[in-house]
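for the recovery benchmark. tokens below, seq after
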């Protein structure tokens, strides 16, 4: 891929510092380069590059969408996709009367020099050394791709191993959703009380007007406080294991 002003260039970049004619020329070089790698098949190249652009924009891709964007007959795009699938560059399940999703394979990402992040796998069959492309449900690049994060949420790094019973180890990251609403019993919450001015993570349980705050699931010992003395700062909505990955 051409490099301009020290940064990697893609067709979607807006290169304001370059003249329009130079940008068009660079785009042509990129498109022709991909086409050359596809045995000088410009239409296949157009389909592959547009697919890469849509995936990077996180737009659902179908043969109809590609045909609409490229101004080509849908049947022609289907044929190009089947050829690209035979070359190992796209995933395309062309079943009759069904809306077929389209995605790049690892080889397709390598050819277009795009990367969507880490693959999200639905299942890995027994005896498989790894996964294959048909098992990829999507890709995770950003935290919100893997966690249900909302505006205002934050990550809290744990500083001890008091919650190992629920799989949270020291130095792990816990996603917190700020709220003062009371959680269901058993939920992990960020709380403080008069004798604990710094908020801490505990499991929550209410019995009448008393609140029991636990650490591990298996612990019988808990801190019991009057409900009026406990301040809720937020609920745990996700967890990233870092401190002791692979342990339980």
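predicted aa per position
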């Amino acid at each position: 891929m051409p490099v301009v002003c020290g940064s990697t260039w893609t067709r979607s970049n807006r290169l304001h510092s370059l003249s329009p004619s130079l940008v068009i020329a660079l785009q042509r070089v990129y498109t022709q380069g991909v086409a050359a790698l596809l045995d000088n098949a410009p239409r296949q190249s157009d389909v592959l590059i547009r697919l890469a652009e849509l995936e990077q924009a996180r737009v659902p891709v179908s043969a109809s969408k590609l045909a609409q964007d490229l101004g080509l007959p849908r049947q022609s795009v289907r044929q190009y996709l089947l050829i690209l699938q035979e070359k190992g560059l796209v995933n395309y399940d062309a079943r009759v009367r069904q809306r077929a999703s389209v995605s790049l394979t690892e080889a397709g990402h390598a050819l277009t020099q795009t990367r969507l992040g880490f693959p999200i796998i639905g299942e890995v069959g027994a005896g498989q050394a790894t996964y294959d492309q048909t098992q990829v449900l999507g890709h995770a690049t950003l935290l919100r791709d893997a966690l249900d994060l909302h505006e205002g949420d934050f990550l809290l790094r744990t500083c001890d191993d008091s919650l190992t019973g629920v799989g949270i180890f020291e130095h792990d990251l816990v996603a917190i959703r700020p709220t003062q609403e009371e959680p269901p019993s058993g939920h992990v919450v960020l709380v403080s009380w008069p004798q604990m001015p710094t908020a801490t993570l505990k499991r929550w349980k209410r019995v009448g007007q008393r609140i029991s705050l636990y650490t591990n699931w298996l612990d019988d010992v808990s801190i019991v406080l009057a409900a009026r003395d406990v301040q809720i700062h937020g609920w745990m909505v996700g967890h990233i294991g870092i401190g002791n990955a692979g342990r339980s």
